[in-house]
Amino acid sequence: MDKNSNSLNWFEIPATDISRAKKFYENIFSITMDEQDMMGMQMAFFPAEMGNGKANGCLCKSEMHKPSMDGAIIYLNANSGMDNIIGRIESSGGKMIMPKTQITPEIGFMAFFVDSEGNRMALHSQN
User: Fold this and answer.
1) How far is the C-alpha of 106 from the C-alpha of 60, rounded, in Å?
2) Which H or E run includes 87?
3) Which of 4, 76, 91, 99 is least surrounded, with the fewest CB atoms within 10 Å of its CB?
4) Torsion on CA atoms 18, 39, 14, 125, rounded to nearest 10
5) What does DSSP say about strands 10-14 and 56-61: parallel, antiparallel, or unpaired?
6) What structural domains and CATH numbers belong to the chain?
7) 3-state secondary structure at position 111
8) Cβ distance 55 to 6 under 8 Å?
9) Cβ atoms < 10 Å from Cβ of 39
10) pLDDT (mean) for 13-38
11) Which of 87, 94, 95 is nearest to 116 (CA)?
């Protein structure tokens, strides 16, 4: 792998109810997600500029995508305001499982939550 490349290119967060999952993430991040059916999957995309070399992803409902508390942990960018995002998680149908915790002063903070679909997820921010 080239030292200048991203280690993450794309992520898909499994959903059993795409509308509920979309509403959850739109609420906690104060964003709008576009939906699309593609290759037999229902998808809702996180906002991003295409072709900028940064990783992005979507919510995905298909036979292959099953929500889990046991899989890889995806750290979503909370630099827009982790405290505000955390404050909306439970009212949007999720559950906090680890509060905002400092990793190191240089790396920043993390927090864990369970989303509306039962996926264990994480947040990361510099402050």
Assistant:
1) 33
2) helix 82-89
3) 4
4) -90
5) parallel
6) 10-125 (3.10.180.10)
7) strand
8) yes
9) 6
10) 97
11) 94
Eight-class DSSP state of 23:
H
- Give the chain's mean pLDDT: 93
Spatial CA neighbour of 29 closest among 123, 126, 127: 123
DSSP strands (E only) in the chain: 10-14, 34-38, 41-45, 56-61, 75-77, 95-104, 108-114, 120-125
Cβ–Cβ under 8 Å, residues 81 and 92: no
- Is residue 45 within 8 A of residue 33, CB to CB? The reply is yes
Which residue is listed with tokens 């809702």? 44
Count Cβ neighbours within 10 Å for each residue of 7-16 and write b for 16 or more, e otherwise. Answer: eeeeebbbbe
